[in-house]
Each structure stands twice: as C-alpha cells, then as structure tokens.
Amino acid sequence: MINEMVTAFITMVVLMDPLGNIPAFLGLASGYDDRHRKRAALHAVLVALVLIFGFALGGRAILNYLHVSLQALTVAGGLLLALISLEMLRGHFDDPDVSERGNIALVPLGTPLIAGPGAIVATMVLLDSVSTAPDRIGVAVGIALALLAVWVALRLSVPIARHLPESIIHLLSRIMGLLLAGIAVQLVFDGTRDWIQLFG
C-alpha cells in the first residue's frame, strides 16, 4: 500500500507540475485580490479531483465498451506522457490567454493545466495496475496528496514566486519533464511486455 501511494504521488506530482503552474496561475489571477485568488486555487483543485476520480471510476467501463485492453491503454498512456514530457522539456506549453478570464478555476486551471489528459490516463493505469483494496486505497491517497500539493503551491503562489525566480521555476519544470519521460518509457515497456505475455 505504501509503495503504491508513493508511486502514485510522485507520478501525479510530476504530471500536475505544481511549481510549473505557478506562473500561469499568477497571470490568470493577476486581477484578483488575495481572497479570490485563494478561492480560485481551491476550486481548480476540486475540479481536477472530480475529473480525475470520475474517469478513474468510469473509465474502465468505457474501455470495456470500446473493447480496449489495459495493455493498449498503458502503451497509449505512455506515448501520451512522452509527448507531454517533450513539451515540458522544450518549454512549448501554450501560455493561457490572460485576457479571457471567465471562470479560470474550470478552464484552464482545473483542466488542462492540473487534470490534463496525461493525469487522467495515468490515474486509470495506476488504479488498474493494482488488484487489492489496500493497494487501490494507497493509489487514491497518493493522488489526493498530489492534488493537495498542487493546492498548497497555488495558494502560496505569490510568496513562492517572490522567493523563487521564474528561471528556477522553469528549471524545475524541465526536471519534472525529464522524470515524466522516464515514466512514459516505463509505461510503454510494461504495456508491451504484458501484451506479449498475454497474446504471445
């Protein structure tokens, strides 16, 4: 249970990139006072939580309906994470348009910045890769702790940005992109190995 929790926490923190989302959050919430900024951070994390666990609970039924195996999902998830990691390493994430605010807690903060496609796929893969109830609880707790880390980072975004230069935040984002690339390769390897063992 502990190993699954730690694995889920590290994976989701890398995917959600709490520090890397701080510049985007500050730009989107630049016209907000401190109270509204904290409320937006909380709502964004709640939106991400609903999306991630919603897909985790119903995603398997959708896969069965579409006749998609877990091995195929694992490889597809790995390829998707690889693309995201390349974007993180190259720094080509599109900056959100700060002029179009609307409800920033829904879009783009809740999704795709926090609960992006990579995080959703990774959640489904992590939960489907364990079979016992304690291990599933460990994965769920790890994901919840990762979302808590995102909330803390966004809530403390102003003091964090004040003490950390933007160049350092971008450097940390690149490091997380490298770790994500490793996770992506491992997912592709595991999915391919399981597929060969199952159908070979």
What would you say this structure looks like, in words?
The chain is built from 9 helices and no strands. With 200 residues, the chain is an all-alpha fold. Helix 1 (2-16) runs parallel beside helix 7 (133-155), helix 2 (22-28) packs across helix 8 and helix 4 (70-90) runs antiparallel to helix 6.
Defining key terms:
200 residues, 81% helix, 9 helices, mainly alpha
Number of helices: 9
Structural class: mainly alpha
Number of β-strand runs: 0
Helix amount, in percent?
A: over 70%
Reported for the largest beta sheet, the result is: none
- Which outline best applies? globular
How far the N terminus sits from the C terminus, by CA atoms, comes to 31 Å
Reading the helices and strands in chain order gives HHHHHHHHH
Could you give the topology of this structure?
Elements: H1 2-16, H2 22-28, H3 34-66, H4 70-90, H5 105-114, H6 117-128, H7 133-155, H8 157-163, H9 166-199
Helix pairs in contact: 1-6, 1-7, 2-8, 3-5, 3-6, 3-7, 4-6, 4-9
